[in-house]
C-alpha cells in the first residue's frame, strides 16, 4: 500500500501482483545471463591457460631432452667450418671415393662466359652495322648505274649522228666516183696501147 496526497486525504494505491512478478522474472533472467556469461569467460580463459601450459611443457620437455642427450654423451656434431674433402671408406678402412670441395657448385666456366659475351657483341654489331652496309651498297649501285643525259645534250648528239651519216654517204659517193674515173682512165690507156701497137705494125 502506498499512500499519496496530503494529510487529510487517506487515498492509497496498490501495485498489481503481475507487475511485481514480471520485474522479478526479468531480474532473475538477467542474473542467469550474467552468470552464464561469466562462466563462459572463465572457461575460455581456463582453456587458454591449459593450452599455454601444454605448450610450455612440450618446449621444456624438448629442451630437457636435448640437454639430457648432451649430458648423456649424445653430443651434436659441430657445424662444418669450411669446405672439406669428403672421403668414403670401405668396411676395411680403405678409401673408396674422394669428393673434392666445391665439386657440385653451380659455377659457370669462364669459357661459357666468353662465348656468351662474344655472341651478344656479334648480335649488337649486326644490328648496328647492317643498315649502314645496306645504305653504302645502295649508294654504290646508284653510282655504277647509267648516268642520265640532259635533253639538250641528247638532241645535240642526235644532230651529230645525222651529220656523221651524211658525211659517210658523201665519202662513199666520192670514193665511187674515184673508182669510176680510175676505171675509165685504165680503159683509155689500154685502148691507146692497142691502137699504137697496130699502127706500128
Give the tally of β-strands.
4
Strand residue percentage: 5-15%
Principal-axes geometry comes out as elongated
Count of separate DSSP helical elements: 3
How would you describe the overall organization of this protein?
With 201 residues, this protein is mostly helical. Among the domains are: 46 residues; 74 residues. It is 70% helix and 6% strand. It is built from 3 helices and 4 strands; from the N terminus they run E-E-H-E-E-H-H. Strands 1-2 form a two-stranded antiparallel sheet. It is elongated. The N terminus is likely disordered.
Protein topology:
Blueprint: E1 2-3, E2 12-13, H1 17-71, E3 86-89, E4 95-99, H2 110-144, H3 151-200
Antiparallel strand pairs: 1-2, 3-4
Task: Characterize this entry briefly.
The protein is mainly α. Helices cover 70% and strands 6% of the residues.
Properties at a glance:
two-stranded antiparallel ribbon; single chain; 201 residues; disordered N terminus; mainly alpha; elongated
